[in-house]
Prior knowledge:
By secondary structure, the chain is mainly alpha-helical. The chain contains two helices and no strands.
Amino acid sequence: MEPFIHLHVHTQFSLLDGQAPIDALIEKAQYDGMKALAVTDHGNMFGTKEFFNKV
């Protein structure tokens, strides 16, 4: 299978769009063998620091 990197992901901080906790997103990406993950929340950047610190 070709390597896949999800470049359009909304976290629980994405206003009206997301519900996925950052920890769950990171776990799933690791489980699926993804080498990278992009966070593209709408309307704010509240999850950026938490995401950066955890990865």
